[in-house]
């Protein structure tokens, strides 16, 4: 019943575009399948995120960055009708945290944006990075660039802010849509992953140290 309910929730959103997929037959596709299988097996999430023996750390991180991007994009897509210029004129996580947007093209300086604008810039920016073969190579034997983990840290730090905004400003909507268990599981999986590999500065995690009621531990 839960899966059916989520299907309806996710089908409602017409703006979500499927993102990068892993090519069947490649090492990364096999890793992705392995990660998905252990996720479904009901294993403890702390164990699920650990690097499988003999696998490359960068491959493991690449697979998760793409997968988290797809999942979080989908979660935000379901919230987007509640997250408007009017409801969220500033991209924030409560009164204490405000996030400004900066990139290498249009916004050279950190700029105040509404939450929907910020999300739009963020999703396009990540999509551009993960589809860039120089940063996320998909061909066998092509090495990752030296700055790969730094790029992933930046992506994951910004994706964490999506959780911050959704939990703090749209938690009621999550509950009303019956998507709470799904969002919580995705958040925990993401959280354990970034902690396992120290990919996000602990100061960035502060807004969600005290989670809203209904958070399952």
TrEMBL record:
The keyword Oxidoreductase does not apply. One of its GO terms (molecular function) is kinase activity. The keyword Coiled coil does not apply. Keywords: Kinase, Metal-binding, Transferase, Zinc. Zn(2+) binds at residues 83, 88, 165, 170. Pfam families: Mob1_phocein. InterPro entries: MOB_kinase_act_fam, MOB_kinase_act_sf. This is MOB3C kinase. It comes from Piaya cayana. The gene is Mob3c.
């Amino acid at each position: 019943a839960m899966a059916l309910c989520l299907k309806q929730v996710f089908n409602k959103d017409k703006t979500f575009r499927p993102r990068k997929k892993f090519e069947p037959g490649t090492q990364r596709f096999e890793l992705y399948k392995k990660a998905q299988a252990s996720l479904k097996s009901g294993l403890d999430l702390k164990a699920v995120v650990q690097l499988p023996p003999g696998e490359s750390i960068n491959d493991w991180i690449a697979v998760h960055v793409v997968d988290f991007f797809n999942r979080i994009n989908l979660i935000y897509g379901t919230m987007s009708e509640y997250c408007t210029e009017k409801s969220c004129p500033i991209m924030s996580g409560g009164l204490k945290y405000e996030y400004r947007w900066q990139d290498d093209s249009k916004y050279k300086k950190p700029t105040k944006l509404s939450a929907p604008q910020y999300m739009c810039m963020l999703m396009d920016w990540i999509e551009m990075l993960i589809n860039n073969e120089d940063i996320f190579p998909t061909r066998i034997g092509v090495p990752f660039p030296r700055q790969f983990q730094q790029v992933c840290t930046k992506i994951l730090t910004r994706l964490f802010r999506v959780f911050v905004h959704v939990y703090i400003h749209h938690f009621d909507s999550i509950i009303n849509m019956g998507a709470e268990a799904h969002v919580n599981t995705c958040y925990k999986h993401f959280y354990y992953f970034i902690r396992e590999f120290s990919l996000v500065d602990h100061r960035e995690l502060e807004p969600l140290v005290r989670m809203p009621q209904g958070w399952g531990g």
